């Protein structure tokens, strides 16, 4: 969204204030969607690998990082709304973690007998 929709609105000639309003409205929605997806992926990963290996696994670390970044996004937005740099940083960091998660191999099932 940050690289496609907002740039397209600017190219179409929308006022920069309108583009900023669209960004301020849609970013929390996308972060909320990412938070729900992370919680779902954490549940799936918890079933796929043991809990001790979960924290050592890169997928688990990335999911926990996204969880912390998303929570900090909403906390900072409520407590300190003037911290726009942190909000944009956490938004972009969540995107980069998502990209790294997509590049990870599918976790193998551990056989429990």
What do you see in this structure?
- The protein is built from five helices and no strands.
- By secondary structure, the protein is mainly α.
- It has one domain.
- The model has no long low-confidence stretch (mean pLDDT 85).
List keywords for this structure.
5 helices; mainly alpha; 113 residues; elongated; 77% helix
Describe the structure concisely for a colleague:
This protein has 113 residues and is an all-alpha fold. The protein has helices at residues 5-11, 16-48, 51-56, 58-79, 84-102. The radius of gyration is 17 Å and the shape is elongated.
**Percentage beta strand:** under 5%
Average pLDDT works out at: 85
Order of helices and strands: HHHHH
Shape: elongated
Major sheet details: none
Number of domains: 1
What assembly state would you assign to the polypeptide chains in this entry? single chain
* Fraction in helix: over 70%
Q: Which residues form runs of ≥5 with pLDDT under 50? A: none
* Separation of the first and last Cα atoms: 45 Å
Radius of gyration: 17 Å
Number of strands: 0
Separate helix tally: 5
Coarse structural class:
mainly alpha
Topology:
Layout: H1 5-11, H2 16-48, H3 51-56, H4 58-79, H5 84-102
């Amino acid at each position: 969204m940050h690289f496609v929709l907002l740039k397209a609105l600017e190219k179409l000639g929308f006022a920069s204030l309108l583009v900023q309003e669209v960004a301020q409205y849609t970013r929390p929605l996308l972060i909320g969607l990412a938070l729900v997806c992370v919680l779902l992926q954490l549940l799936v990963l918890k079933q796929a690998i043991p809990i001790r290996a979960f924290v050592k696994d890169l997928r688990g670390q990335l999911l926990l990082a996204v969880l912390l970044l998303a929570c900090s996004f909403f906390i900072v937005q409520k407590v300190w709304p003037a911290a726009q740099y942190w909000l944009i940083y956490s938004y972009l960091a969540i995107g980069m973690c998502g990209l790294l998660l997509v590049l990870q191999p599918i976790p193998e099932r551990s056989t429990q007998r």
